[in-house]
Amino acid sequence: MFDTLLIANRGEIARRINRTAQAMGIRTVAVYSEADAQALHVQECDLAVCLGAPEAAKSYLNIDAIVKAALATGAQAVHPGYGFLSENAAFAKACAEAGLIFVGPDEHAIRVMGSKSEAKACVQQAGVPLIPGYFGDDQSVATLQAEADKMGYPLMIKAVAGGGGKGIRTVHEASGFVAALESCQREAKNAFADPTVMLEKLIVNPRHVEVQVFADQHGNVVHLFERDCSAQRRHQKVIEEAPAFGLTDAQRKSIGDTAVQVARSVNYRGAGTVEFLMDASGAFYFMEMNTRLQVEHPVTEMVTGFDLVSWQLKIAAGEPLPVQQADIRLTGHAFEARLYAENPDNGFLPAIGKVALWRGPDHASEFAVPTSMNQVAVRMDGAMRSGLAISPYYDPMVGKLIVWGATRDKALNALQDQLLKLRCVGVRSNIAWLHTLSTHPDFARGGYDTGLIDRMEAARTRAVEPDQSIGLAALCALGRWAKGVCEQQGVGVTDPLLLRDGFASASPLLRTDVFSEAGKSESSWPVRSHCRRQGARVQVIGALGPAGKATSFDHAFELPQEPVLTGEVLRIVAISPEMGEIELIWNADLLHVFGRDHSALLLWHNPAHIRVDQGDAGHGVNAPMPGKVFAVLAKPGDTVKKGQPLIGLEAMKMEHMLLAPADAVVKAVPFELGQQVNEGVALVLFEE
To answer: What is the pLDDT of residue 506?
Structure first.
């Protein structure tokens, strides 16, 4: 076994690999960009080397710099992680030429399976079932359009070097083919430096089922059963589970044996994932093979009890697989939820900025399933802590919540419970949205298809239910009271009975505040309230709504502890007979409400601030995040309709097309193709 390992990745990926390597007695070397100097993986590895500027192309994708770092630190092996260079044949070749062990398959396997077209040609010879499509070398628009028309719609355009849900477009009719092709090629070139695409017939409402395989250098190949990754948004996996719901023993054996056959067809070595689409009849078709460990590998670890990173390291060192196929058994059920810094109420746009408060479970220290089948196991693979920032340069995933239970129902209950306990304050996240998904009847039932999230989003409303609004109004009043106390006292909290702010017990005044659901400022909540405190009890009385139409409320809350102000975060814990224990967290003008079975995010309309909504039709379209302009579709003097594409922004490795918020006349377009822009700047200005 080698004694020093360089981990050519960042964040939770690097931390995950480091945890196992150090447990095996291997010295670890972290690499990082200038943007990641304070990152946790840099602190935890034994050594760390700065690769360069924040842009991935100048740091984590810089093959020469990584190889030099490995040689300079005495590393004998390089683990690419998953993402970045993990499926880059040139990187594997460069490591081999430098005398370094590449923890993964050889250059040939990466090249063949890394190209969707070559991979399909390879496995087709092995008799593996394929989805009909076009995988040819002729990439002219005319040929691709002709092949698409011949195949029929709907179909999918896929980058042959793709991964992570990027470089994929769905086309439903011929008229939209060319625009989708150009967008797909552009994104593929930016993400993978290769614009080559393939076409594939779209299987309507399929399930996405993948199989984990491992192969050593001695001819042994095994599978560790399957995962269901059908909960996807924009072709990116959101929640994964193992095993796949509803598969018979015969189906499980057939898909596992086929995955092993795929690995053997390319003389595979190391960890790999073979991905299939399964139709309603249960028939499955090869889609692609990812020549690396997957983001979702923890669910397989949880149901088999094996540390898959340790297998990778042992295989790379020339050791045989530690078990035979007969030794691998399924126990219980596991889910993984991917936690992203993104705004579900604004098209899931990535969010950046400092995380003022992060709270979640500690990661598991071992991979064995619990000895008691009545227990549940909870694990967090992440790289976030309070005070760290979400960078605009990399993928916005901040961590993964993994749970295990003896049955699917027990595991699902644990997932829902843990999602309610997570806290991410300071930037928008998808945590509450993930809880909504996990409680959706179709998801809870199991056996859902890849269209589940699209259907859920089409039916979703952001409006707070009427029966919740009165309780939330009382919580808003309680939160505003605590905020006022802290602001007047500077730091710490003293007896509010001493304050002269309209909240003293003898005062009859009602304070008026306006709140709205975050991201929905067009619907505001006027809240008039008065708080009276006696010891640990706070009585909140008031009314929700405009005068003459208001609904009154009167709630009593017990405060088990004083409100706590820590840095930028004010935390209040309150208990009421109707709502149970509630946690309120203030950060700037946002009030986070965490209840026993739901959460909410409310914006306080601070009278000291003047707000202009981004995208206001009277002004123009502003940049929702930092990024690079990749398309300009409007010019001064154009008359545009609501919903018309105006300008494209690339950020966090994804393309985002910004649309006209209303009918308008374009006054100016200040930026050109290729320019970097900051968050909030005007990208398109309208005539008044």
So the answer is: 47
Contacts of 626 (CB under 8 A, 6+ apart): 352, 392, 651, 676, 677, 678, 679
Q: Clarify whether residues 273 and 383 are in a common domain.
A: yes
Residues 29 and 65 in one domain: yes
Give pTM, 2 decimals. 0.82
The pLDDT of 189-216, averaged and rounded, is 91
How far apart are the C-alpha atoms of 660 and 643, rounded to whole Å?
5
Q: Give every CB contact of residue 259 below 8 A, 6+ residues apart in sequence.
A: 211, 213, 223, 274, 276
Same domain for 214 and 152?
no
The CATH number of the domain holding residue 55 is 3.40.50.20
Calpha distance 398→381 (Å, rounded): 9
**Domain's final residue, options 459, 491, 514:** 459
Q: Quick one: tokens of 269?
A: 């070595």
Helix axes 308-316, 297-304, angle to 10 degrees: 100
Instruction: Kindly give, in sequence order, each residue whose CB lies less than 8 Å from that of residue 548, ignoring residues fewer than 6 positions away.
Output: none
Tell me: the pLDDT tens digits for 531-544? 988 889 999 999 99
Q: Are 391 and 352 in contact (CB under 8 A)?
A: yes
Instruction: Please check whether residue 476 lies inside any domain of the structure.
Output: yes
The rounded Cα 67 to chain-centroid distance in angstroms is 29
Q: Return the ∠ at Cα 181 (arms to 209 and 638), rounded to 5°.
A: 130
Q: Name residue, tokens 């405190």.
A: 533
Do 333 and 437 fall into the same domain?
yes
Please name the residue that has the structure tokens 């779209």: 202
Confidence of residue 613 (pLDDT cuts 50, 70, 90): very low
Q: Is the peptide bond before 243 cis (omega within 30 degrees of 0)?
A: yes
Same-domain check for residues 674 and 598? no
Q: Give 497's pLDDT tier (boundaries 50, 70, 90).
A: very low
Residues 282 and 429 in one domain: yes
| Contact criterion met (CB below 8 Å) for 526 and 510 | no
pLDDT at 338: 97
Q: Is residue 421 part of a domain?
A: yes
Active-site residue among 111, 207, 269, 292? Answer: 292
Phi, psi of 515 (to 5 degrees): -125, 160
In sign, the C-alpha dihedral spanning 237, 240, 244, 246 is: negative
Average pLDDT over residues 235-263: 95
Distance in angstroms (rounded) separating the CA atoms of residues 340 and 348: 9
Rounded Cα distance between 669 and 637, Å, is 10
Number of domains in the chain: 5
pLDDT tens per residue across span 537-584: 999 999 998 877 888 999 999 999 988 888 889 999 999 988 899 999
User: What is the number of other CB atoms lying within 10 angstroms of the CB of residue 546?
Assistant: 10
Find where tokens 């625009």 sit: 179
- Residues 140 and 188 both lie in one domain: yes
Q: Is the pLDDT of residue 380 over 70?
A: yes
Contact criterion met (CB below 8 Å) for 224 and 339: no
Q: Which domain holds residue 41?
A: 4-103
pLDDT in tens, 130-159: 988 898 889 999 999 999 999 999 999 999
Instruction: Provide the CATH number for the domain around residue 666.
Output: 2.40.50.100
The reply to whether 583 falls in a domain is yes
Summarize pLDDT for 106-131 with one digit per residue, the tens: 999 999 998 877 888 889 888 899 98
* 244 shares its domain with 363: yes
In angstroms and rounded to an integer, the radius of gyration of the C-alpha atoms of the chain is: 27
- Whether 494 has a pLDDT exceeding 60, the answer reads no
CB 656, CB 624: distance < 8 Å? yes
Domain edge (last residue) among 571, 604, 637: 604
Please report the pLDDT score of residue 619 as a whole number: 73
Residue 408 known to be catalytic? no
